[in-house]
Predict the structure.
Amino acid sequence: MFRSATLRLTVWYTIIIMAVSLVFSTALYIISRGQLESSLRRQWLRRIDQRLNIVVQPNDISADLTEGSARLLNYLLEFNLIILALSVFASYKLARHTLEPIEEAHTAQARFTADASHELRTPLTAMKAEIEVALRDKKLTIKEARELLNSNLEEVSKLELLSNALLKLAQTNRDTIALRQTNALEVVSGAVERVKKQAQLHSISIKNDVRNIKFVGDSTSLTELFVVLLDNAIKYSPEKSVVTVTCRKSGGCVAISVEDKGAGIPAKDLPNIFDRFYRVDNSRSKLKTEGYGLGLSIAKKVADLHGGSIEVTSTVGKGSVFTVKLPIEQKK
Ligand code: ADP
C-alpha cells in the first residue's frame, strides 16, 4: 500500500516540478528569442556600408535567428532533461520522507490492534473451552459448576483489567492536557491513597517524603501516572518491604522518585519496558503478577504530554527507582 502511494506521490511531485520548469523554460525561450532577434538586427544595421548604400532586408537575419533559436532550444531541452532526472530522485526522497511517519504510525497501530486482540482472545478462549466442556458433562455437580463460575470470574476480571488499561491509554492518547497550578504533594498523596489497600494486602508500607513543590500540570493524569509507578512498586516487591517516594527541585523541573526494594529489572529489558504490551519474563524471580504491559506506556505518555520524562535505574534482586521529571512552568 505504501509502496504504490510513494510511487504515486513521486509521479505527482515530478509532474509539478517539470510543469514549473517547462513554464520557466518557455518564458525564457520567448524572451531570449526576442532579445536575440533585436540584437541581430542591431548588428546588421551596424554592418551596413553607408558608402555602398546596402539596404538590409529583414530576411537576411532570419538564418542566424533560426540557428540561434535552435541552439537555445537545445540548451533548454538538455537543462529540462537534467531537471527531470534530478526531480525524479528528489521527488522519491521527498515522498519517502512524507510517508515514512505515516507508515510508522500505521504499523504501530496495526501491531497494537493485533496485540490487544490477542490479549482479549486469550481469556475468552479459556472461558469458552471451560463452558463447552461443562455443558457436555451431563453429570456436572453443583461443586464443579461453582468452580467453573469462579474460574470464569477470574477471566472476566482479567478482561476488565485490560479494558480499563485500554481506556486509560485511549484517554492519554490526546495531544493536550488541562494545565493548572498543582503541587507534588497533592499529586503523590492522591496516588498513595488509591494504592493504600493493595499495599496493606501485601504488608508493604509506603513512605511519602514528598514536599509541597508547586508546578503547573494536570493533576488528574499525573495522579494516574504515580498510581502506575506505585502499583508496580507494590506488585514487584516482596512482602513487608518499603516503597519510598521523594522529590526535589532539579533545574527548572520537579523530580519525583518512586523507589522500591523489589525484583528489579534486567538491563536488557530496560529499553523496552515503556513499550505497549511489553512485560518482563518474571519466571525466574517466581513473581506471578497480573498485568498487560500497558501501565508504563500510559505513564510515559502522561510525562511526555507535560514535556517531562521518566527515567529508571534498576538492579536485579535489589530494586528499582523510577524518576519522573516535570517542568515547573509550562511553555505557552
Ligand atoms: P504491567 O502491567 O506488566 O506491570 P507495565 O507497563 O506497568 O506493565 O510494566 C512493564 C514491565 O516492567 C512489567 O511487566 C515488569 O516486568 C516491569 N516493571 C515495571 N515496574 C517494575 C518495578 N517497580 N520492579 C520490577 N519490574 C518492574
Observations:
- The chain has three domains: 2-108, 111-172, 180-327.
- The helical segments are 2-47, 62-136, 142-172, 184-201, 219-235, 295-305.
- Residues 180-327 form a domain with the Heat Shock Protein 90 fold (CATH 3.30.565.10).
